[in-house]
Amino acid sequence: MENLPLGRLPMWPGTTTKAVGQALRNPKVLSGGGVFERVNEIAEADPDAVAVVDGARVMTYRQLSERVRRLRLVLRGRGCRPGDLVGVAGPRSAELIAAFLAIESLGAAYLPVDPGWPAGQLADMARTARPRCVLVIGDSPPPPTPVVRPPAADAPMSPAEPARRAPADEPRYVIHTSGSTGRPKGVVVAQSGLLNHLWSMVHELELGPSDSVAFTAAPSYVISIWQMLAALLVGGRVVVIPEGDAVFGRRLVTALSRGGVTVAELVPTAIGWLAEEHRRRPETAQLPSLRCLVSTGEKLSPGLAARVLRDRRGIRLVNAYGATECADDVTLHRVTPADCAAERLPIGVPLPNVALYLLVLEDGAWRAAEPGEPGELWVGGAGVACGYHGEPELTRGAFFVDEFDPDSPTGRLYRTGDFAVFSENRVYCLGRADRQVKVAGVRIELDEVEAAVAAVPGVAGCAVVVQGEDGDVHLHAYYGAEPSVPPERVRGAVELRLPKAMVPRHWTRLDSLPLNSSGKVDYRGVGGRTGAIDQRETV
């Protein structure tokens, strides 16, 4: 892949910038072996230990290693080599995990291809990414690229090979993320970023051989990477949650329980489903094996966090913050009951080898934010991606030379576009600038409105959008709930919590909020502009 250019950050003369969060250096994490190397070590020490549970398919570490070698032989036969992009199209599955490991073992970069992408987006991906080939799993429709099918279960294997130590800056995967242009951008993450995040999750969540980590995310979403790999570093197991079970509360509870899941990462909308299932059916929604629940992708409200801690005594609830451009999470915070009494939850402290900076743009130049002063959040260190594949101008606008830390593992900074504040030795994310709107001359933070709606008993999630034209701009709240929670009741509860100007004019109850392929609320699909949604009540 090409080297991508970095931007230069204009700073105020004489400005001294210190990280508001600076984790300890851990060079060992950055120079460790690959994931497949670790899988092979475990396969030799405990070959019959379970590595992946995918419905009725149970794959041991020995079987996983052998499957990887079969896939590697096929990919190598198609000319795949270090530096290539190799696509994988298919649902989350044991085969998908084996495919990633096979690609990693060849020194190539993994490119998940969502079979649900529109034809135009698939064509754009093929043109800009130019993968060597795409491995198509199951019945997924083939993209307009050279296609490879998985080998038979008893196909020949490549011979055992010495462990390959990849360079720290070798591209390891490319994840496409949406942007303001509507055209997805391919984020290139290097080997060091992958390993730093995986081992950080192992240490911070205290993963071990007895853990079962839920694989709930769509393969095209960055959190799928750690969900399908971190447990394999320590001899644990990955539990694949079927596509249909991950988007319905009751089915999600059943799947997590059936799989004996101990660690799960979900967006707050899905966490709200679990809370509602516990309220409706406390006897069957206990999830006794679940010891750690990680919230990601959206703002976790203090009200929902309090419900989780109250309903599931002893559970570790973690609030995560990150971005695809930073190899996923950059901070973690273990939520306490005391945290839930505040207006917002902290996003925590940086992961090892990661640094956070708060900067304020003033007269065309940047300066460090004062304590308690909101600023834009920038990330430096090991997790920062190489840039956007094939997009030098976009890369230059989001990734910058790290002039703050001469010892940075990557030498890069990423501008998140989020605002945050550093107060009482904690970092709080304030949301994005584009979530601040003006209605009737009043500046409104949409996240605050959503948090108030989500705090109403019986509400499992909320999306507030701006509708109308100049002169009649108003808020419309869509919330997920049972029919027993009508819009009139929710609006009445919110009117007791928010100023009149912040209360949405229109309210729509949905059986569940629509999610996009990343597992986040689909704001485009939730409103009437993009088509009707069944099972709704509106006032």
Essential attributes:
single chain; 27% strand; 14 helices; alpha/beta; 539 residues; GMP Synthetase, Chain A, domain 3
Walkthrough of the structure:
It comes from Amycolatopsis xylanica. Pfam families: AMP-binding, AMP-binding_C. InterPro entries: AA_adenyl_dom, AMP-bd_C, AMP-bd_C_sf, AMP-binding_CS, AMP-dep_synth/lig_dom, ANL_N_sf. Residues 140-166 are annotated as: Disordered. This is Amino acid adenylation domain-containing protein. This protein has 14 helices and 29 strands. It is of the alpha/beta class and 539 residues long. Residues 528-535 have low confidence and may be disordered. The strands form 7 sheets. Strands 1, 17, 18, 19, 21, 22 and 23 form a 7-stranded antiparallel sheet that branches. Among the domains are: 56-160, Rossmann fold (3-Layer(aba) Sandwich), CATH 3.40.50; 440-538, ANL, C-terminal domain (GMP Synthetase, Chain A, domain 3, 2-Layer Sandwich). A hairpin with a 2-residue loop joins strand 2 and strand 3 (57-60). Helix 2 (35-45) packs across helix 3 and helix 9 (268-280) crosses helix 10.
